Amino acid sequence: MISVSLCMIVRNEEKVIARCLDSVADLMDEIIIVDTGSSDHTKEIVSRYTNHIYDFEWIHDFAAARNFSFSHAAKDYICWLDADDVFLEKDRQAFLKLKNDLTSDYDTVLMDYVLSRDFQGNAQLFTRRNRLVKRARSFQWVNPVHEVLVVDGRALSSGIEVTHAPMREHKDPLRNISILEETIRKEQGNMSARVHFYYSNELMDHKRWDEAIDSYESFLRREVDYFEDHHAACGQLAHCYHAKGDAKKELQSLLKSFEYDLPRADICCRIAYWHEEHSDYEKAIFWYEMALTREMPPNHFGLMNKICWTWAPHVQLAICYGKLGQLDKACEHTEKALEYLPGDANLLANKSQLEGALRSLKAAETKAPAETAAIKNEGGG
């Protein structure tokens, strides 16, 4: 069995840190906590779980803090988490099995990072992370914010999920963009592609639409270093144009994503919805149907909206077919959506309404020929 060091950086996490450590403490062989300046009871709470607690003077650099935490690890592999992450019970059991089965041939283990779930607990919005890495490889974190662990070697896709479960949004809303702007200043305008992409994202998040558009477009003119970022930038650029009310450029931005990868279900759904908003239901149906044919990329690190690969296209197809009066097709896709979300109240209500409308339509179609025949018979008398 391999041994694992858990490495975390924390600051003022008294509301969530115990929940996180309760979910993983018995899975880890040591716990390393690096505190970057807590003024609450975080360190007191953490001391119940470990005596490996280190202070790190905050220098506005998340990568530096994470590398410092990694430097104190002593076990075979390093696992990293944020304070508002948890392992659900199914993932705890899967992690235990992984510890028993994993061989030293693997340099990194990939786990899905689930950002939201549906009411049945299924992952909706998620991405993927190198979550468990071999300590001997001395992998390093880069970028002061939106930091990335740079790894290579043999990777294992584990299927284990880490669930992000924030209790509230407590970070400074200007923190990330301030760090990025300071990084750009230090680089004297020669920002790396990664910084360029994340700075564009921050501009978008702050609704600085014109600046975000300029930044994304200049980023997309750069040579492709990591194609997932270019692919994602197309979707973000489309969002900015949508906010600006420029429908034509919104669609052009979505279509531009095809330069970087085969059509993905989430992009297909966005193109479909663009046509749906413009009442072009036949084109919307084409793109929703296209989404249903796409398989999720097996080795992705971008943000994925899983509903676009599962029930969402069926829901929208039911709406589009309903608009065209094709109620049988609308019923069919509502049924398929219910296969993913059994018991969903809205879908069940839609199903009942559609089936009622379809029965009325069929009854009217049956009645009409009978009435026509009666009129003909009367005329013949």
UniProtKB/TrEMBL annotation:
Group of enzyme by EC? transferase
Lipoprotein recorded as keyword: no
InterPro entries in the cross-refs = Glyco_trans_2-like, Nucleotide-diphossugar_trans, TPR-like_helical_dom_sf, TPR_rpt
Using the record's annotation, list all stretches that form the Glycosyltransferase 2-like domain. 5-104
The protein's Enzyme Commission number: 2.4.-.-
* Record's keyword terms, sorted: Glycosyltransferase, Transferase
One GO MF term on file is:
glycosyltransferase activity
Give one Pfam hit by family name.
Answer: TPR_8
Quote the protein name from its UniProt record: Glycosyltransferase
Q: What organism is recorded for this protein?
A: Paenibacillus sepulcri
